[in-house]
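Re: folding output
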Amino acid sequence: MSAGASLEIYKEIGLPRDVLTRFGAPQMSGTHMIGHTRMATESAVTTEGAHPFNTGDDLCLVHNGSLSNHNGLKRWLAREGGLVFQTQNDSEVAAGYLTHRMRQGLDLEEALKAALKDLDGF
């Protein structure tokens, strides 16, 4: 997976060392790399459900927690923002929320502040 001009997203399930080897991460170059190991609580353990989730051309979200209102938000974002979701993962909904707010003209900081009010969970 890839998005934007300078962001590449590699997602897979398995042990971190095996995933790094599978994608050839030791041979990659760049300025930043983020790895995330997830304990699935709201959705199946699949490549599609793995983090991160895109929030725009060069932004992505890794979320550690649980959202209690993600089903309602998902319906609202599909209806109001025309967003299409690929998984049952609550973090994909959080990423979609940020995408929607930034498409409305908010910058990232403003979108994150709005999320504090609208996303319910921990």
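--- second protein (sequence, then structure) ---
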Amino acid sequence: MSIKKNPRRQKNPWEVRWRERGRQYSRSFATKAAAEIFDAKRRDEQRTGRYIDPTRAAVTFEEMAKRWQASKHHRNSTAVRNQGILNIHLIPAFGHLPLLDITRSLISKEVKKWEANGLKRRTIDRHLAVLSGIFNMAVADDLLVKSPVRQIDRVKAERPHRLALEGEQQAALLQAARGHYEPFFYLALSTGCRISELFDLLVGDVNFTDRTLRIRNSKTEAGVRVLSLSSTDIKKIQHHLATTGRLGNNPNTPLFVTPKGRKLNYSNFRNRVFCPIRKAAGLENLQVHDLRRTSATTLIKEGVAHKDVQARLGHEDIRTTLNMYAESTREGRQHVAAVMEEALSKATRASRHLNAVV
């Protein structure tokens, strides 16, 4: 390595030159002191193992994002969501930049733009999770010393949307869904399956003799399970197969299909089926995942053992069942008030009796 002044350069005349892996590198500085600082820093980084090869550090964010996606084994829905985050938000903002040029302050500035555009905290957290995964992979591949996705200020998290339908609301939803999709909505409420699990069901997953439903594809190991079905569940499934002309059909075909016999697609289902039905039912705040939450809440309200509810939903941890899915209901709150009224009434009567004796 050498530090020399280049008299032909009027701007940044002091040059630091060094060879690395058979290749010549140079950096120019305005003063000799600045060049010496760079020289010392580079030597120290090489000594401590924190040095990054300039050619490797020139990898762009878009190239690194592609490597990260290729290395992951995400579920299809997660992969589609991540691709949307990259295409719409991350690639336009950072795609052309070398990884070393993307700083914490640059990311913070982009987060402020997302907030100004109305993105909610949970959405921004998902964006940062993808961003963090990409930079963590760059660190693991020795392209960076550390990730810039750290200490990013965000707006305060809003209370998570959690809605469990009361009995009359469930009836309104099923009434609005009458027709082709009513069996699908009924099974969603009855089984508590994730929407992706319902989409992946095959005809052969239903055992009509034993009245069971096999869940093969799930986001967790505990989600791979066999559910007991009621006689009404079986009738709904048979009705759906009959109306779509598929009684005795190939067991390897999708269980639930569109009126044209095609496999259900989440985006189309939500926009063309779910949203119009929830509007017709007067439940415009309802989200797709609330069907699963409603099932869990109903089971717990009716006194089903918590471990049985956990098993039906396919949760690995019962805390997930109780903390995220078992919502307080109006009937439950009224029952609590009635229980307390009765308890206090007993206490009052006992107090009066004691006073009368004294």
